[in-house]
């Protein structure tokens, strides 16, 4: 099964010029934990609720700080032609829970581990990916 069959296609994106407050409010409004960051239609990063907490609040940035200060620029993306098993493997390898799906650097969808587990016909792959993503990291002290 191809990832295009299970991905969410109605993806909200934001530019890097929005504030942490604006993006947090958008996440709450649409009930998501991540939003791709796009500039001139091209994906340049992604921000997660975890980024807001660890890179924003914990670093004492104000709610009016630009999201460009905290979003992840290291992008792991998939394509619509990718098989569900390939996406699950990619997510496990990079320990990510959400995978933006792109066509020519433009976001056309997003898939989560939950999508793979619920709608994909590869529960073993979703379970393996979740185990890998959920591996505890050693605490930094």
From TrEMBL:
Residues 7-65, 71-127 form the CBS domain. PROSITE patterns: CBS (PS51371). The keyword Chaperone does not apply. Gene3D superfamilies: CBS-domain. Keywords: CBS domain. SMART domains: CBS. InterPro entries: CBS_dom, CBS_dom_sf, Diverse_CBS-Domain. It holds the Pfam family CBS. This is CBS domain-containing protein. It comes from Planococcus rifietoensis.
């Amino acid at each position: 099964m191809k990832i295009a069959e299970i991905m969410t296609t109605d993806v909200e994106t934001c530019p890097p010029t929005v504030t942490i407050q604006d993006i947090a409010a958008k996440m709450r409004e649409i009930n998501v934990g991540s939003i791709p960051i796009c500039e001139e239609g091209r994906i340049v990063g992604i921000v997660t609720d975890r980024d807001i907490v660890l890179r924003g609040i914990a670093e004492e940035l104000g709610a009016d700080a630009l999201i460009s200060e905290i979003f992840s620029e290291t992008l792991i993306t998939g394509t619509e032609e990718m098989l569900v098993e390939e996406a699950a493997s990619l997510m496990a390898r990079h320990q990510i829970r959400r995978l933006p799906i792109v066509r020519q650097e433009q976001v056309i969808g997003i898939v989560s581990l939950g999508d793979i587990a619920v709608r994909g016909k590869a529960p073993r792959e979703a379970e393996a990916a979740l185990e890998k993503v959920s591996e505890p990291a050693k605490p930094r002290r």
